[in-house]
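Submission checklist for the structure archive. All mandatory fields must be present; incomplete records are returned to the submitter.

[x] Identifier: GDP-fucose pyrophosphorylase domain-containing protein
[x] Organism: Chelydra serpentina
[x] Residue count: 592
[x] Sequence attached
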Amino acid sequence: MPAEAALDVLLQEATRRRLAKFDELRGKVTQTGEFWDVVVITAADKKQELAYQQQLSEKLKRKELPLGVHYHVFVDPPGPKIGNGGSTLHVLQCLEEMYGDKWTSLTIILIHSGGYSQRLPNASALGKIFTALPFGDPIYQMLELKLAMYIDFPTHMNPGILITCADDIELYSIGATEVIKFDKPGFTALAHPSDLTIGTTHGVFVLDSSALSEKELEYKSCHHFLHKPNIEKMHQSGAVCIRRNCSQPNSSGEHSDLKMDYEYVYTDSLFYIDHNIAKQLLTFFKQLDTLCCEIDAYGDFLQALGPGATHDYTKITDNVTKEGSQLAEIRQKLFSLLKGTSLNVIVLNNSRFYHIGTTQEYLFHFTSDSKLKLELGLLSTAFSIFPDKAENSDISACIIQSILDSRCVIAPASVIEYSRLGPEVSVGTNSIISGCCISANADVPPNSFVSSLSIRVNGKVMYVSMVLGVEDNLKKNVKLLSDVHSLQFFGFSLLQCLDLWDLRVSDQLFSGDKTSLGLWTARIFPVCSTLSDSVRVSLKMLKAVQNKSAFKLNGWKLLSIEEMLFYKDVEDMLKFRQQIYEEITLQRHKEI
């Protein structure tokens, strides 16, 4: 494998070529075999499905995507969560219903985007797959990036389905004459060299015993697949590879003369199934009465594959988010169905895998990560108006499709997207501002998360802004009202905050399931008649907590984040983004 600096350049060149190739196809009708026949995005519920369809429709109208392709949003069936594995099975059924026998002759990409993005809530309303990236004109979102990065796949793929997630990026470089082929029966997965710590949060391949040559591209067989293993397990299973006499980076990041052995594993990202496997999985799904538990497309499909697979994992629930009573039984049936199926691995030695699914990852990759910035060509100001930026704000801040007054101040390591900020606004370090209009004097403290949503209540458009700490845990919940004190808002006990806001702890304080009480379901965000008022009032809430001063909320109509998503008005949010887009475009034409 090349040294880090050389790899940076290889990835930059390969990525630029793919982006240019995708740009050529945007707004044009594609030829057969040139692009995917079908692009599928999954949604968690009807509201999300509608939001995705509206955004897809807008993109196609603006010619931001290749044309002549079938784009579909398939919503999970109502009822209990079924995970991305259950969602995959459901999509197979939808495809068969829509295309009949023809579906087995298509090349299909399936992008899982059905979560509520609780760890990156600026993507909660409009979806992780529509997360904006700081480059492109018009701005690229994750959907375009994923389609661009996989632009070479359909041409060298047998009919089948490529399965990927909405919040990761795979960048890779292969030789000029090499191509990645998805032409073997069974499952085929991409593998990326990663350090052992990364392996503990991913899938890890135990490859067959023949030596790896460390060429840019290798086709291997997988003996068995480990799902989020600990480091001891990686060693015991023979998953750990060793690169001998590697030069190690010194404290400034440059490579020194010090030579050491370097341990690494091959971790997963996307995978492909041929239509024979797809049909088997569909038959399996049809035989189930109903699916009432979460299946993981990675953990529950891939662990059954390869000659070394055992059924031990079917009983282990350490890495399961919510264990359903049906889960062990489903896993055992899937194991019986898939046992003996080959797992082909495409080893990409010159590759990097990035995950952008949490506020911390989002902030790091968009503001501080020099590698991704170089490889993808990320900008500190992307399709925005921010005059004299260098004088007022740190270059490591990131501005995406926003209009900022020249006198506002943005501190380092913060991201502003789809927003309009006036002259008396300052944003503290390590903050995220999304979809906001802040016209009046405002001081956003460091480590703040501020995201505004349009909602429609009784036929009227209103606005509500969620204000949180970037490290607040929206997934944490308690079962009893007496345990609410253990919940945190901006580093303070929620109980303490409620007291300052003159709100009482009661069942009425929380929406939805009354045995799942957390920041996600707490009715603490005020509804306002204008977008700028909603930010102003929510920031007052936060200021009250920081200054330990009272700010009464008991006279306001209050919503939880869960309810904000239920009442969201996608059309109005997209209209606000479009107004910003048109104003920036107009300003640019004036400057030409």
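[x] Structure attached
Curator remark: The mean pLDDT is 93. The first strand starts at residue 38 and ends at 43.
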